[in-house]
Amino acid sequence: MIRVIGIDPGLRNLGWGVIDVSGSRIAHVANGICHSEGDDLAARLLSLHGQLTRVLATYRPGAAAVEQTFVNKDGAGTLKLGQARGIAMLVPAQFGLAVGEYAPNKVKKTVVGVGHADKGQVAHMVRMQMPGIEIAGPDAADALAIAICHAHHGGASTLAQAVARAQA
Q: Domain of life of the organism in this record (predicted)?
């Protein structure tokens, strides 16, 4: 079994989701949202770092994955999101984990079946794959989807190998 954390980076709300993967089975462990606190960017990033560090210390994942940042028309917003993404990559690295990176369309295609699904569709399919779970919000649902994507595409090698064999 391998424990995977998926992280959906955001400066205000950084979603996280932890799953256990054993063969082709996935099980929900926990999910939540880190809310940044502070008056300036440095304080907000430090807040996210501390909260995410506590999550990793609590759940001790063996693999991590982060959604890649897409560039939008707001250059300043994209840069701030990139800084939050840096925290999302730094904290797992501090725990000795390699960090998988996935484009939003790949995550959606893996979990929903189409690359342009909306947040509601992602949350619905996450619930379908892990019935009965309570999801802390859309950012946490996205983070669980990132963890599932990582499990399917290399983060949890036994599942990735089973998928590769099935596709061969």
A: Bacteria
Q: Does the active-site annotation cover 8?
A: yes
Catalytic residue list contains 101: no
Can you name the residues that pair with 38 across neighbouring β-strands? none
**pLDDT tens digits along 1-26:** 999 999 999 999 999 999 999 988 99
- Out of 67, 101, 134, 142, the active site residue is 67
Query: Which comes out higher in pLDDT, residue 160 or 88?
Result: 88
Quick one: CA torsion of 62, 103, 144, 49, rounded to 10 degrees? Answer: 60
User: Any alpha helices (H) in 9-156, and if so which ranges?
Assistant: 41-59, 75-94, 104-111, 119-129, 138-152
How high is the pLDDT of residue 76?
83
Active site residue: 118, 134, 139, 142, which one?
A: 139
